[in-house]
Amino acid sequence: MQDWPSAYLITFRTHASWLPGDDRGSVDRWHSLVGGPTAPPAKARAAYHAGRLTQPPVTLTPGQRNFLTSAIEETCAFRNWSLLAANVRSNHVHVLVTAAATPERVMRSLKARATRTARESGVLGPEQKLWARHGSTRHLWKPADIEAAWDYVVHGQD
User: Fold this and answer.
1) 145: which of 16, 32, 95, 140 fits an S-S bond (Cβ 3.0–4.6 Å)?
2) How confident is the model at residue 33 (pLDDT cuts 50, 70, 90)?
C-alpha cells in the first residue's frame, strides 16, 4: 500500500522563461537540492542557451492563463484529484493538489492535457513548445504546510 503525502505543491515554468545562467540563479544537476544554493548567474551560459532556442520564450496572456487554468481544473476532475489551488502566471504555474499518484505523474498529466487542449483550440501551434522540462514537486505531509502552500499559491504571487 502506497503512503501518499497529504498534498503536492507543483510548480512548472513556460518554455525558455528561465534559462541556465539566468541572473536570478538557476537549477542544474549540481544545484538542485530544495532550499540549497542555485547555480550562480553566468552571462555566457545564459547567452549560449538563448542562442540554442528554436522558438522564443513563452509568455502567457491573461486569456491564455484563464484557458490553461480551466485545462488544469478539467484534468484534476477527470483524474479524480482534488485541486486545492491553482495559479497560472505569465511564465509559470503553481498547483496545489491531492492525488493518489506520484507528483511527477500529476505534473506530466497537467502539462500534457494543457498542451493538448491549447493545440486543439489553436492557442498553441502544432510544434510550439509550451512548457520547460520538468519542474518542482514538493510533498506536503502536514496541514500547516498545506495551508502555507495554499496561501502562497493564492496570495503570494503578486
Assistant:
1) 140
2) low
